[in-house]
Design a protein that fits this description.
single chain; alpha+beta; Uridine Diphospho-n-acetylenolpyruvylglucosamine Reductase, domain 3; Alpha-Beta Plaits; 4 domains; five-stranded antiparallel sheet; 19 strands; 21% strand; globular
Length: 457
């Protein structure tokens, strides 16, 4: 390892290779609770050529490489292995081009998601994916995890906006995949192979993103319900009415009370559940959709429907929803934010199943999420120093995943597999599909040096 670090220092410079324990300590964990491990060193490339150099040296010394951005991941995807090189792309953070004529934006992998949104917004364009960590997460990390967000129901996830990328393969080869063309069906769609691959197949160093025209108007509604079933039935009714809101979010009572204590926006604290709905588009269409959504909420048992009177109030409500994780994290020393998705028809029964599991294992679990696309975030409030309680947490998580799969769901809607969920992946995919993943990994990374141990062993 000493010779590898010496080689990295000689090629990159001492300032861009960290080895002291106090310097590398922050790179030994990500946003996932309870997972941590110190790497051998942390390196900061400036461009794809530097990344290529690091990967070639790693291959020569047979050292694992774990790529990292801001470290906001929630499945352990960027937690290093002992002896690993952490390849941190955070300093590769430039927005290289905003092309209004072709509705595209090109950025380095370390560019912050919020800055990409802001750069598009400044010229009247719109980058829709909005993970909860968008103020700090990097676009490269979003691509690696195929991140979603609140606007996923109407606008999809990161995969739907990546039309090109620069990627460095395990042997150091630099490739460009895709282009600005609206139509391009030449060869295999290799971009999709790397989107969501969690750094196990290659290192994405630049991305070319599709942008949309900025919606001319928005309207936000807050609906309160006395039962979970009424809220879930309302979601189904909205979709059945052929209305696809920009966001269709849900908070259970535990979450909404905690959020209201934190954000102080006057949420209805006695409600069993609330729906936060945003519609966007042409002003006339937005007004019509908002009126119909309000009618559907009332028809399905909403006790109140609050229409944001100003942009400031709408922003306040949206901020309250985005603060759910932060608000809940104040309650106990350890917060485990989970991520499962079920068909919309199974939402109410899945939430009830989570409540039963929480009671069975004497745990506090709050649930919120993206009701419109069936993505739930059961959030376990615990203390990792309590071994007995953490054992109950492990049992509860296994049961939550089992209940999800029984309902035709998936173990992850937007956080990825990483370390945290790999024990459950084969159960979801089945033997043949699981082995196909292994075959792709072996083809592109035959020596298993890129983020080894993630997704599968």
């Amino acid at each position: 390892m000493d010779s590898l670090i010496a080689s990295l220092t000689a090629r990159l410079g001492a300032a861009r290779v960290l080895t002291a324990r106090e310097d590398i300590l922050p790179y030994g964990f990500d946003g996932t609770a309870t997972l941590k491990q110190l790497p051998a060193c942390v390196v900061f490339p400036r461009d794809a050529a530097d990344v290529s150099t690091v990967l070639k040296l790693a291959r020569e010394h047979r050292a694992p490489v774990v790529t990292r951005g801001s470290g906001t991941g929630l499945s352990g995807g960027s937690v290093p292995l002992p002896g690993a090189i952490v390849l941190c792309l955070a300093k590769m953070d430039r927005i290289l081009e905003v092309d209004s004529a072709n509705l595209t934006l090109r950025a380095e992998a370390g560019a912050i998601t919020q800055k990409i949104y802001d750069a598009a917004d400044a010229v009247g364009l719109f980058y829709p994916p909005d993970p909860g960590s968008m103020k700090i997460s990097t676009i490269g990390g979003n691509v690696a995890e195929n991140s979603g967000g609140l606007r996923g129901l109407k606008y999809g996830v990161t995969r739907d906006y990546v039309i090109g990328m620069e990627v460095v393969l395990a042997d150091g080869t630099i490739c460009w995949l895709g282009n600005k063309c609206v139509k391009d069906v030449a060869g295999y769609n290799l971009r999709d192979l790397f989107i969501g691959s969690e750094g196990t197949l290659g290192v994405v160093t630049q991305v070319l993103l599709k942008l949309l025209p900025k919606p001319a108007a928005r309207q936000t509604l807050l609906a309160s319900f006395t039962t979970m079933d009424a809220a879930a039935e309302t979601v189904s009714a909205i979709i059945a009415a052929k209305i696809i809101p920009c966001t269709l979010e849900f908070l259970d009572q535990k979450t909404l009370r905690c959020v209201d204590d934190f954000a102080k926006v006057g949420l209805p604290r006695d409600a069993a559940a609330i729906l936060l709905v945003e519609t966007d588009g042409h002003p006339a269409a937005v007004a019509d959709e908002a009126a119909k959504i309000g009618e559907l909420c009332r028809a399905h048992g909403a006790t109140s429907v609050r229409l944001a009177a100003t942009d400031a109030e709408a922003a306040q409500l949206a901020t309250a929803r985005r603060s759910a994780f932060s608000a809940l994290a104040r309650l106990r020393p350890t917060t485990i934010l989970e991520d499962v998705t079920v068909p919309r028809s199974e939402l109410a029964s899945m939430i009830r199943a989570v409540e039963i599991i929480a009671q069975k294992h004497a745990l506090t679990i709050a649930t919120f999420g993206h009701f419109g696309d069936g993505n739930l975030h059961p959030t376990i409030l615990t203390d990792e120093r309590d071994a007995a309680e953490m054992h109950r947490v492990e049992l509860a998580l296994a049961e939550i995943f089992e209940e999800t799969l029984k309902r035709g769901g998936t173990i992850t809607g937007e956080h990825g597999v990483g370390l945290a969920k790999k024990p459950f992946l084969k159960r979801q995919l089945g033997d043949a599909s699981y082995e196909l993943l292994r075959l792709v990994k072996k083809s592109l990374d035959p020596e298993a040096l890129l983020n080894p141990g993630k997704i599968f062993d």
